[in-house]
Amino acid sequence: MPTLILVRHGRSTANNSGVLAGRTPGVALDERGAAQAAALPDRLAGLPLAAAVASPLQRCRETLAPLLAARPDLPLHIEDGINECDYGDWSGRKLGELTDEPLMTTVQQHPSAAGFPGGETMRTMQNRAVDAVRAWNARIEAEHGSEAVYLMCSHGDIIKSLVADALGMHLDLFQRVSVEPCSVTVVRYTPLRPYLVRLGDTGDLGSLAPKEDGSGASAERDAAIGGGAGAS
Predict the structure, then answer these.
(1) Full strand arrangement of the beta sheet holding 76-78
(2) Residue 174 DSSP symbol
(3) Is 46 exposed, middle or buried (0-12, 13-18, 19+ CB in 10 A)?
(4) What is the β-pairing status of strands 149-154 and 3-8?
(5) Which residue has the higher pLDDT, 212 or 83?
(6) Which of 6, 86, 105, 164 could be a cystine partner for 119, CB 3.0 to 4.6 Å?
(7) Which three-class secondary structure state does DSSP give residue 84?
(8) pLDDT by residue (tens digit) across 186-197?
(9) Residue 211 confidence class, pLDDT cut points 50, 70, 90
(10) Which of 221, 228, 226 is nearest to 207 (CA)?
(11) C-alpha span between 64 and 41 (Å, rounded)
């Protein structure tokens, strides 16, 4: 079965301002995110990609733009199944103010029971993403063979939930996974089980440095929604 390369979109204007973007339209990459996207073709050089699949949101399409420019024959497909979690009424709000919401404790500690007001549940989010990947695995294998490699560009919580599925982890543990903007996570699927080959690889260890205030509390908060680095 195929190997899936999961790329989280580059850092966005919402990441930079600590906003939970969700599906809010018009959220673009910031300057750093654009640089991360520009580096993606070199990072993936030598990999024979069969296809690129993206969430419909602007920040994912912008992340793949340099790769598609470097590989004009690489087809791009838009997939609603890997769209960002629908955070409903939480979309567009500051992460700092959301920490005081009672629901945040459930999101952090028992996400399989969490449903966002006016949005979707986290179980629904994971199920649709896993279904989309399984369908794409079958399609890629049928069209390109079992050794094919393809790429999906999506969002932090989506990628974390796919990692949890690949590892056979309960969704309640997925908040222990962290994926930075424009990081690469790789899952190799086989008929019996998936294998996690890479997790959140950025080629940059700078994010491991201690926080300026000497605490790790902000990292735990930021990773709770949107996969880390502030927001989705």
Answers:
(1) 76-78, 49-54, 149-154, 3-8, 184-189, 194-201
(2) G
(3) exposed
(4) parallel
(5) 83
(6) 86
(7) coil
(8) 999 999 999 999
(9) low
(10) 228
(11) 9
Of 194, 217, 183, 143, residue with least CA distance to 10: 183
Contact 50, 2 (CB under 8 A): yes
Exposed, middle or buried, 214 (CB in 10 Å: 0-12/13-18/19+)? exposed
Q: Rounded CA gap, 67 and 108, in Å?
A: 34
What element of type H or E holds 85? none
Alpha carbons within 13 angstroms on the beta-carbon side of residue 18 total 10
Q: What is the CA radius of gyration of the chain?
A: 17
Q: Which parts of the chain fold into alpha helices (H)?
A: 13-17, 31-43, 58-70, 95-98, 102-109, 122-144, 156-167, 217-224
**SS3 track for 127-165:** HHHHHHHHHHHHHHHHHHCCCCEEEEEECHHHHHHHHHH
Q: What is the pTM of this model?
A: 0.90
Q: CB-based burial of residue 54 (10 Å sphere; 0-12 exposed, 13-18 middle, 19+ buried)?
A: buried
Would you call 49 helix, strand, or coil by DSSP?
strand
Distance of CA 97 to the CA centre of its chain: 23
Segment 213-229, tens digit of pLDDT: 554 434 443 444 555 43
Distance CA 118, CA 141 (A): 37
